[in-house]
Amino acid sequence: MGEYLTGAQALVRALERENVEVIFGIPGGATLPFYDALKDSKIRHILARHEQSAAHMADGYARASGRVGGCTATSGPGSTNLLRGGATSPVVAITGQVARAYIGRDAFQEIDTVGIYSPVVKYAFQPLSASAIPYAVRAAFYLASTGRQGPVLIDLPKDVQTESAEMEFPQEVRIKGYEPYVRPNPESVREAAKLILQAQKPIFLLGGGAVKSNVGPQVLELAEMLMIPIATTLMGKGAVPENHFLAVGPIGMHGTYHANTLIMESDLIIGVGVRFSDRTTMDVGDDALQEGDALIQKGEGAQGLLRGQGVRGEREEPLHNQEDKGVPKA
């Protein structure tokens, strides 16, 4: 038998189970039940001066701590301001919403928060019953911290926060179709090794995913063994020490001359945690790679569609930013 709690109490309890220590935000009418429940929690609330700042604070916290960040805002203008902060880090945004009966009726400070957020978050939850809150929180943290990490929304109607129900807190969640970690195909690994050994001018290109995954030491071990230079994107800076003798700095529009020259003259790019964005390639078309060039992509964000001989893989082991609570290693 589960414990009877209000939706707001269940939300706080679920956040505590995710080891949340701090949350950034501004209270409002649609989130007052949550703030009432937060009084009895050890979770520290940091008051922002603008909801956009709360999102930036949560994003910075996630980057600096390696944990999932949290931010909150009320309905309507609060939630739209929060969205303006954006986030490319694992952040769970909690927004208030008008009562269920008023959704879609142009009520005071009512807006289609899920519809607005959906294009920029990994997933948007809107629990329509108090008992659905524990699952939504567990799934939100799982989605935010796995695969290519990113923000997730939980939009809570006010009456769902005050509703009481018997709560069951899941230890694990399984989301149909979501497989964030795929073990590499052995044939692809052998093909990648063959390409590396045959290349005359190979180069590593590390992106933001390499920083998040902390794969710098492994890259350095291979690079030093084969004497392969290491370039980065701007988001990949810091993946390996910038003063290492194989580090050549960032490439792209804001890169260094020698790094860009090495990339242009290379016959094999080993991409780790990179997206090959327009600021990096300055050309996302079919001619970004010349015929006969080779590309190996590995890690979160490996999605560049470039012509040439390509081998793709995913990170083999998961990177969990929160203490595992039985989350399956997909």
Write structural notes for this entry.
The chain has 330 residues and is of the alpha/beta class. It folds into 2 domains: 3-167, 3-Layer(aba) Sandwich (Rossmann fold); 186-313, Rossmann fold. It contains 12 helices and 14 strands. The chain has helices spanning 7-17, 32-38, 51-65, 77-84, 113-117, 133-145, 158-162, 186-198, 208-213, 216-226, 257-265, 278-281, and strands spanning 3-6, 22-25, 44-47, 69-73, 91-97, 123-125, 152-157, 164-167, 202-206, 230-232, 247-250, 268-272, 294-298, 309-313. It has a 6-stranded parallel beta sheet, with helices on both faces. A 6-stranded parallel beta sheet has the order 11-10-9-12-13-14, with helices on both faces. Helix 1 (7-17) runs parallel beside helix 6 (133-145). The longest helix has 15 residues, at 51-65. It is elongated.
How much helicity do the residues have?
25-40%
Would you identify the CATH H-level superfamily of the largest domain? Thiamin diphosphate (ThDP)-binding fold, Pyr/PP domains
End-to-end C-alpha gap? 29 Å
Number of beta-strand segments: 14
CATH class of the largest domain: Alpha Beta
